[in-house]
Amino acid sequence: MAHPYEQQPEHAFWRQAVAEPAARGIASVDPVVAPAFRIARGQRIATAGSCFAQHVARHLRQAGVVPFVTEDAHTIVPRDVARAFGYGEFSARYGNVYTSRQLLQLMLRAFGEFEPQEPAWRNGEGCWIDPFRPRVHPGGFLTPGELQADRERHFEAVRRLFAQLDVFVFTLGLTETWASRADGAVFPVCPGVLGGEFDAAQYELLNLGVDEVCADMATFVELLGQINPRAKLVLTVSPVPLVATAGERPVMVANSYSKAALRVAAEKLSHAYGHVAYFPSYEIITGGFNQGRYFAPDQRSVTDDGVAHVMHLFLQHYLGIEQSAAAAPEAPRDPMLARLVAVTQAHCDEEALAR
């Protein structure tokens, strides 16, 4: 009698799907099969998420696909200055959106459904920073009013983004987040790191579970569907490990839990909604088949070759664009220049925890 495995395609077997392609070259490994939908070249693709998500917009541009942006700097502003102020990293200047709770909060705040009790923090120089976008204005704002005006422009851009996008690519990054005990508002970085003052009586650490991530994202999906019925979502999980954990477990163990919870949540959501797809960037970067070659010597930063492999498969399967998986830009020979390039490729609020 025939058994179920006899009818399985090659991608169901490790030898055919992983071992043999990897023997020909790690860039040959392709874990993407039958995407839930395709993206037309003219569709509006928006991006958000952790620092790894910043690579999506960069590679889309390199492939000739213009990401959908509703908040951009004036054309006379130099590119490096614009980037320092948070322009061009994502589709709007929301900075790193690490967690499902942070994404849902962004939606609710932009549409006037939630207003946190902490509108601004002081930084070390006495200026004001946005607790929810701590890096978008280097040095801080001179007055709370200036910050609020910038925030209102930002929310208008976010509303247009959600109303007009066709595809939203969101990278889930973390499960740990710091929240206000007063109203539940969550922050991209612990209070006191980039601004404000930490007070254990005022803030608490949350470590979201699978059910909480699913509930946050399900609410977001439903709200987005009401605003924009045609919107589709592509979920990924960031392969970049935690910089640090505020919990009791070692960072390596905390990271394993965090990524596992996010990966399970992404799987459940992609099965629950026909217009939500999962893309395996996490598996491509962390898979044993590449023997750690997609991580830099710090064992955390993803190399250009790794990003190129991920984006090659995304472009191929979702947009029908064939691009070499080895299309990463040549690394600068000058060590100092290489360091500067690495810094400018992805801005991460979380990095401040390592200082």
Description:
The chain is an alpha/beta fold. The protein has a single domain (39-354), classed as Rossmann fold (3-Layer(aba) Sandwich). Helices cover 37% and strands 10% of the residues. It has helices at residues 14-24, 54-62, 79-84, 100-110, 144-164, 210-227, 251-272, 281-286, 304-319, 335-345; strands at 45-49, 121-122, 128-129, 167-172, 176-180, 186-187, 203-207, 232-237, 276-278. The strands form 3 sheets. A 4-stranded parallel β-sheet has the order 1-4-8-9, with helices on both faces. A 3-stranded antiparallel β-sheet has the order 6-5-7, covered by helices on one side. α2 packs across α9 (304-319) and α4 packs across α5 (144-164). It is globular, with a radius of gyration of 20 Å. Residues 327-344 have low confidence and may be disordered.
